[in-house]
Amino acid sequence: MHRYTLIISLTVIVLGADITFLRGDEKPLFAPRPRKDSKASENHAQGTGIFEMIVDKASGKVSGVYVRCSTENLFLDTDVINTFLQWRFQPNRQSAVVLVVAFTADKDDAYYPVGPRIHATNHGLPMLFQEPVKPEKLWGWFSERYGAAGHR
Prior knowledge:
By secondary structure, this protein is an alpha+beta fold. It has a single domain, classed as 2-Layer Sandwich (TolA/TonB C-terminal domain), CATH 3.30.2420. It is built from four helices and six strands; from the N terminus they run ββαββαββαα. It has helices at 38-42, 74-84, 135-141, 143-146, and strands at 11-14, 17-20, 47-55, 62-69, 96-103, 125-129. The strands form two sheets. The protein has a four-stranded antiparallel sheet, with helices on one face. A hairpin with a 6-residue loop joins strand 3 (47-55) and strand 4. The protein starts with 10 loop residues before the first strand and ends in a 6-residue tail after the last helix.
């Protein structure tokens, strides 16, 4: 009997730089799926973003999250940041993990699209999030990104 290891690699272009994604043999130990909060669900929010998790190599805990390409929805970005801060990886393996996260209007759970290339459509948020964040706080910091309706 032969055992094969499936290695999945996905590359995207983010502002002109190639980023290699999580391979199949680098699975997280704990990885809850981002889910829309009640406001995002009521509004049938949708969007796709690129997020980078900074992993403490010694512990395997996610120590921070960058929004490399926003979903353009305040509530979805907040949901992903707060969920990714809960992820855990095998210690001494990862230092950073980049994932594309997408939400559709009709489902509350996020999915991770797979394809040969995902293109960033906007600049992300110039901040490392190291603690859970509330939508109001995110809107206060980046109101120009989310617009006047972002705080509702």
